[in-house]
């Protein structure tokens, strides 16, 4: 009979089946025949044995089978019992072979089957099986699968049977693993030589065989697409190939990539289980490593010698699980990790980290293991590695990994005090980039880092707590340095010096808060641009000179040099932002814009959301100054959306001020109105950033028909700038703004005085402020002087790149010249040029109202008396509505004409006096001094005012209540009022 014509053929196993049939039918005299089936795990030994068994029984023979198990190899008589049960079921007439008592057998072999059986016991076991074999029909095949796991007493009995077999044709087929050398000498001594015994070495399937198998089970089209990929994934392992077939039976991978799912992973785990405990443990270690490990690392992890390790590695390679020392497919690695208990996986990672550390692996590689290890190995080395890995991750643009490393390092609580301080400072720097609020929550434990690994003795900059309205934390950090000078490096003196300068710049009214800070002994105070190793000092020096004397050529040149010198990081952030601000107020918009784009991209790559938001806000201000109003609005919205509202701190005044001004200039007052509803920190008006915000708020009041309130805002700016000794027109041209408010009130003489005073304070390089002063002066000058003033203003705006302002001035010149009736060719050419400029600017501006000067929006035109506020507001056309970004809008309180009566109706006299001063910008301390009451009483009055007026913070008072009076006498003379205290809260 042709057995293979009845049963489906195994791919590339026909020759092996033929050898087995040849041994079974060999009628030459001699001992029993033996066949050993050897091959890698999962290559089809069991399937070959099952197929042969079916063919034997179909041909009239008898097959007695048994399967050994790794988990039962210590159970005595496990294999022998399976053979007996098979013989009993096949004997004709149901006659069962007689067996000795089971209790006696177990006692003779021992509980674990380790005791050798006596000859009497062996004989009593063998005779019944021999008798059964003689009585079974046809040739008999004894098949034992996974023979290497058979118990010792079963093998002893099998060796005895081999010696006693008679003329009955018997074939014994044993399936074994080739990498498990068995030492059963008793059976090995009974093995016959060739040709009565054969060893069959099964190999993984070849590529053509894989294609044929896929064609048979998935179809020719799927086999054409998937066969090569399936072979590469499995190395021809039949068990894994069948797993992939199960995964792709209903899939349709058009791109030739097979689906790899539960079928494949189950096959891999089955292969690992059959390979043994050593192979499974080694596979777990390899799965935990991101990169292919060296033999030395694997030897230490496995705790084995090189020979034993390489035998296990070869087992996994032959089984198609590994290729070299890495997994053939990522799903195999994931399956190994998922199949390991979390607690065991965490413990293994700790061992991996320790071995990698001893082997000198990269800090980031070790840190990834430490982050998931539990418990972490003892010693400060783990915290040191995590700290070093965090710095490496930052340089590589992985802030999340750096943050996780520092958090874990801090949890380890290293014994080294300097290491703890360095970890805390580095963690603060990272959180400041992405979530300043989280950084501030850690300020109580922050001490500037002493000797860092790079040898830089500096800590977190004072600009961070200042930015987030926390002057006390900044001062406390500086005092900690002074309290323990021996802990910190000599560079701490430079750090204190830089921090003091930032304190003075950020909160010029809070001088008393840093008077207790003594600068430790160190290098002499840095002169401008003389200390290249202290970028924070350089940044503070730039802004100090800018706010003290205004922009000049040397200052702007140095700002450009610093922007080109530094790349964005923790140490350079302050100086880069200072240099960018210097270029902005020096009217060097082109290099400022180029630097802004570069820094924004660098902040995005790091990534550092807070820095990205700041540089985007600077781009918005540049766009506003260029006249690109739509871009300014969009960029301001983007800046506000990039980071949370709380993370902005006092810096939120920058994008909000730009957004308000751009909305007003484009005629979209709703944008400005919504921006003014965004809550801002109470201390914003204590900072120079608050001047920018106050100016924008004053413009809104002027544009909405409240010129007196606007004038109060502008003169309050003048008071603060004079008190802070930074009355620089390039920063805020408050006199020009106040001049427009005076024109709207009909006070032309005062407006002229303010504009003239502003013009006199403008230096040659403050071209934008000069243009604004000339334009305001032209609006209140006699008719015969206006053209010359406007021409000078147009030239000034052209020099600083203010296209929108220049276009508006040219339109005013056109109107004057047309009224004069100029008709010469040159005059017409000049007019056409001006009209072209105005037309291009108008096309670039957003749709809605054209960009006109503030006074014109209130009914004021050059040469005419300002219209009353109510009339101006009624005449203003409605602007299209646009929904800008509002992070946390509060209930709007527009300025109300009935504000005075509302105060008197709801508030007591004491509460009204406190509320009016607070609305004017006075701090609690200043209100207390002015009214001769305590600060605590002021706070109690304000709490009741907020409750009665249904508001939440001090800044709402300005929008809710119109100030009753404003000191304008000194402002009319072009100077800030001297008797008014600074508006701080």
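^ Assign residues to that structure.
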């Amino acid at each position: 009979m042709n057995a293979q014509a009845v049963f489906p053929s195994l791919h590339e196993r026909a020759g092996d089946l033929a050898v087995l049939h040849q041994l079974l039918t060999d009628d030459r005299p001699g001992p029993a025949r033996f066949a050993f089936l050897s091959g890698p795990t999962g290559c089809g030994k069991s399937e070959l044995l099952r197929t042969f068994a079916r063919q034997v029984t179909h041909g009239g023979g008898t097959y007695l089978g048994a399967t050994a198990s790794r988990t039962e190899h210590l159970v005595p008589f496990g294999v022998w019992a399976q053979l007996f049960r098979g013989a009993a079921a096949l004997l004709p007439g149901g006659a069962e072979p007689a067996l000795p008592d089971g209790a006696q057998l177990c006692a003779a072999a021992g509980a674990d089957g380790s005791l050798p059986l006596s000859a009497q016991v062996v004989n009593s076991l063998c005779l019944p099986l021999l008798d059964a074999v003689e009585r079974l029909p046809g040739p008999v095949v004894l098949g034992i699968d996974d023979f290497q796991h058979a118990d010792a007493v079963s093998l002893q009995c099998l060796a005895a049977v081999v010696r006693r077999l008679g003329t009955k044709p018997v074939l014994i087929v044993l399936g074994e693993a080739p990498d498990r050398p068995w030492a059963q000498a008793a059976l090995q001594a009974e093995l016959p030589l060739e040709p009565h015994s054969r060893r069959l070495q099964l190999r993984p399937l070849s590529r053509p065989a894989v294609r044929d198998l896929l064609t048979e089970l998935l179809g020719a089209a799927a086999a054409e697409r998937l066969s090569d990929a399936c072979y590469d994934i499995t190395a021809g392992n039949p068990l894994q190939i069948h797993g992939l077939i199960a995964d792709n039976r209903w899939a349709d991978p058009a791109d030739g990539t097979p689906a790899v799912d539960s079928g494949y992973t189950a096959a891999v785990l089955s292969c690992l289980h059959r390979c043994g405990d050593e192979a499974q443990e080694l596979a777990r270690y390899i799965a935990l490593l991101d990169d292919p490990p060296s033999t030395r690392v694997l030897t230490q992890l496995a705790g084995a010698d090189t020979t034993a390790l390489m035998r296990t590695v070869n087992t996994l390679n032959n089984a198609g699980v590994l290729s070299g020392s890495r997994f053939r497919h990522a799903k195999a690695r994931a399956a190994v990790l998922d199949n390991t208990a979390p607690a065991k996986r965490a413990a293994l990672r700790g061992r991996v980290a320790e071995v990698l550390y001893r082997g000198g692996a990269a800090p980031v590689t070790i840190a990834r293991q430490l982050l998931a290890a539990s418990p972490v190995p003892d010693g400060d080395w783990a915290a040191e590695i995590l700290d070093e890995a965090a710095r490496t991750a930052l340089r590589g643009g992985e802030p999340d990994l750096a943050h996780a490393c520092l958090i874990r390092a801090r949890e380890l609580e290293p014994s080294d005090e300097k290491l703890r301080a360095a970890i805390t400072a580095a963690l603060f720097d990272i959180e400041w980039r992405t979530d300043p609020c989280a950084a501030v929550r850690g300020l109580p434990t922050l001490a500037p880092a002493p000797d860092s690994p790079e040898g830089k003795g500096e800590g977190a900059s004072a600009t961070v707590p200042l930015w987030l309205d926390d002057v006390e934390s900044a001062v406390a950090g500086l005092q900690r340095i002074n309290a323990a000078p021996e802990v910190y490096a000599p560079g701490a003196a430079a750090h204190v010096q830089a921090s003091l300068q930032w304190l003075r710049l950020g909160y010029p009214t809070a001088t008393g808060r840093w008077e207790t800070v003594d600068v430790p002994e160190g290098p002499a105070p840095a002169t401008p641009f003389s200390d290249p190793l202290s970028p924070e000092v350089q940044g503070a020096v730039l802004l100090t000179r800018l706010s003290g004397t205004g922009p000049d050529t040397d200052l702007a040149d140095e700002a450009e040099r610093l922007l080109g010198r530094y790349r964005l990081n923790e140490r350079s952030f302050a100086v880069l932002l200072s240099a960018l601000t210097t270029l902005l107020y020096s009217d060097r918009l082109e290099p400022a814009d180029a630097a802004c784009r570069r820094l924004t991209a660098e902040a995005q790559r790091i990534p550092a959301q807070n820095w990205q938001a700041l540089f985007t806000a600077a781009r918005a201000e540049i766009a506003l100054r260029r006249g690109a109003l739509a871009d300014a609005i969009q960029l301001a919205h983007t800046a506000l959306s990039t980071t949370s509202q709380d993370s902005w701190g006092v810096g939120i005044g920058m994008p909000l001020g730009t957004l308000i001004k751009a909305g007003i200039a484009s005629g979209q007052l709703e944008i400005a109105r919504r921006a003014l509803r965004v809550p801002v920190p109470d201390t914003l008006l204590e900072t120079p950033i608050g001047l920018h915000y106050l100016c924008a708020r004053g413009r809104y009041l002027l544009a909405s028909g409240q010129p007196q309130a606007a004038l109060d805002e502008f003169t309050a700016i003048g008071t603060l700038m004079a008190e802070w000794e930074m009355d620089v027109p390039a920063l805020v041209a408050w006199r020009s703004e106040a001049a427009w408010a005076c024109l709207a009130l009909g006070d032309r003489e005062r407006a002229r005085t303010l504009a003239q005073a502003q013009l006199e304070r403008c230096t040659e390089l403050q071209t934008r402020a000069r243009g604004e002063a000339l334009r305001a002066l032209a609006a209140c000058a006699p008719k015969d002087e206006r053209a010359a003033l406007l021409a000078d203003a147009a030239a000034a705006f052209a020099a600083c790149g203010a296209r929108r302002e220049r276009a508006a001035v040219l339109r005013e010149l056109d109107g004057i010249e047309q009224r004069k009736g100029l008709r010469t060719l040159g005059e017409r050419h000049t007019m056409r040029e001006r009209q072209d400029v105005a037309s291009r600017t108008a096309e670039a501006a957003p749709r809605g109202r054209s960009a006109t000067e503030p006074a014109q929006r209130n009914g004021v035109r050059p040469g005419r008396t300002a219209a009353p506020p109510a009339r101006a507001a009624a005449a203003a056309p409605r602007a299209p509505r646009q929904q800008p970004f509002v992070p946390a809008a509060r209930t709007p309180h527009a300025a109300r004409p009935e504000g005075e009566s509302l105060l008197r109706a709801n508030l007591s006299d004491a509460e009204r006096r406190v509320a009016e001063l607070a609305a004017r910008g006075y701090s609690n301390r200043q209100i207390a001094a002015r009214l001769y009451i305590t600060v605590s009483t002021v706070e109690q009055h304000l709490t009741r005012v907020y409750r009665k007026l249904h508001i939440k913070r001090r800044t709402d008072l300005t929008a809710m209540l119109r100030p009753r009076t404003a000191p304008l006498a000194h402002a009319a003379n072009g100077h800030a009022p001297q008797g008014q205290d600074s508006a701080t809260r």
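The beta strands are 33-38, 62-67, 140-145, 170-176, 197-201, 322-323, 326-327.
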